[in-house]
Amino acid sequence: MSGFTSSDNNKDVAVDLIEILMNAALNVWYIFPIILLTYITTTPWFKGLWGEFQVNLILKRLPHNEYRRLKNITLPTDNGTTQIDHIVVSKFGVFIIETKNMKGWIFGSANQKLWTQKIFKYSSQFQNPIHQNYKHLKTLEALLNINIAALFSVVVFIGDSQFKTEVPENVTHASGCLSYIRSHSAELLNQQQVLDIINNIDSGRLARGFSTNQAHKAHVKEIIKQKTCTKCGSDMVLREAKKGQSAGSKFWGCSSFPKCRAVEKFN
After folding, report:
1. What is the predicted pLDDT for the residue at 93?
2. Residue 242 class from Cβ within 10 Å (0-12 exposed, 13-18 middle, 19+ buried)?
């Protein structure tokens, strides 16, 4: 009689199955990194990072002896932080650059709260980048204590996108930002002022790192929460007082005005 049992046969089958699976895994191991890389490149985090990298390469074309570049600057504000993609400092002014890595058709105007991205039949809205960059500009105005006339907001779209409505000249696509920056040829700052501005930004910025990024993300989420009217649920719109003692100050007003007259303090 044979000395083998059914238990031995089961073990042999299990060993053979494990060997087959291991050989199969060894033959297709390269697929898993590809899947992981594909997933990462589709995340908003990577798209933003890739867009900023491309803009940084574009800005390197500016003569270094005339234009100084700073990137990924997080500055403290009275109620949190604000993050600026790029700042270009020169005797021709300070250019605050907001990057958008998007594709499809882009619809928007200077005064609209939300702009629209359309890819075939899919449409989505995003915050007006001009308004988004305004806070950056005002933060730098306070930090640097210089005339706002020397500060310029620039919005740069990167990616396979196309403007389908007329946009202001400071909203550009890719290397168009260079033309806008170079179009400012009047000297607004002397060499010492340029150096002081760079030193003030470097000394005022928060240390780059995970904790700084997480704190900024939490602050952005909190801002988004504040944009919903607590009375009727409509979106809140950032407005500016035109009369009275508060003239010139910002406040949140309900978009359903005059039906809803709810207002909130803007910090």
Report:
1. 97
2. exposed
